[in-house]
What we know:
This protein has 2 helices and 33 strands. By secondary structure, it is an all-beta fold.
Amino acid sequence: xxxxxxxxxLVLAGSLLxxxxxxxxxxxxxxxxxxxxxxxxxxxxxxxxxxxNVPRQGSPGFDLEGLYILxxxxxxxxxxxxxxxxxxxxxxxxxxxxxxxxxxxxxxxGSKKGSSRLYRLRIGEEPELIxxxxxxxxxxxxxxxxxxxxxxxxxxxxxxxxxxxxxxCLLADAKAGFKVLCWDSWLERHWLLSKFVLSxxxxxxxxxxxxxxxxxxxxxxxxxPLSGKDGKSxxxxxxxxxxxxxxxxxxxxxxxxxxxxxxxxxxAPNETDLYAACxxxxxxxxxxxxxxRYPLDGKEHHWEEVLAxxxxxxxxxxxxxxxxxxxxxxxxxxxxxxxxxxxIWKFHVMAKQLEHVTTPAAYLNxxxxxxxxxxxxxxxxxxxxLFIAQSKGVKQ
Length: 396
């Protein structure tokens, strides 16, 4: 089907040639409703780790009901993952479940107030303690753990401010062979690579601190914001840092594009590139109808436009929740539950072809696509329920 009939145009820059592209008229995926309320991550191309939660009794929040292995070809046959060696309380307080290099990582409450224990789990083996510290994140390939040294005001709710001073990240245990990084990272998000760390930097004029009476209050931020190349203050950007914490690239200083990190970023499985939702600085609205790419080689670059999803007409499209498979094909969610272009899309980079993977009903959104590395299966959330879109070419 030619683009002039559906009104969507792709603009490819850099290594991708500009040309008229075709889109498949209907999805070549089978949509599987697992019936599971929860999420998870891909352990490998054919196994998805499911994190099933249940409401916490007597207090807000959720407890872990269990971790399971799901084979998309047999969604009704969940296989439980044993956490038998963990203490009873820790079994229900598992969170931040991720998959790396065929391993599962997760956090449970730590040995000190405010700390967490980070475990690695290989299927068929007992969970292995990696670190016990404040807010640990791990790169198994890079063999290091990053923690947060900044103490925060809890005040009965989420993290709201900071105390004066820093500490040692509440480090209690560290597995031999893993380097420990203890960075002051208040208000920052991190994405760990084997050789670098992506940091979303924020600065606010006022922060919430604990007063002399012990109660939390707002006070001017005693720290000055960092400055860009033009000398202007930075309040929000993304830095690429080396493992010493030094800034090697400011990804927010681009003459053409603004990166919308809140809509999600995606790192190529081989860590060569970062993909993010973006918009041109000349745009007069806040939607992000583009996907941009940035090389992760430790050098300064400009963002390269990879995909422009311009539907045209009265609808404003907004890309979010990007995922990328090993071939570099992109998966993303287009918001707008009342127009025919919403749902999950796949851009086949090699074939220069756009495919509409899911077309939800008008009152639903298909969000947070997570592609298996081979691209044959895509997990996503529909109204809180886990669905799998599986290529019809996959053998049962």
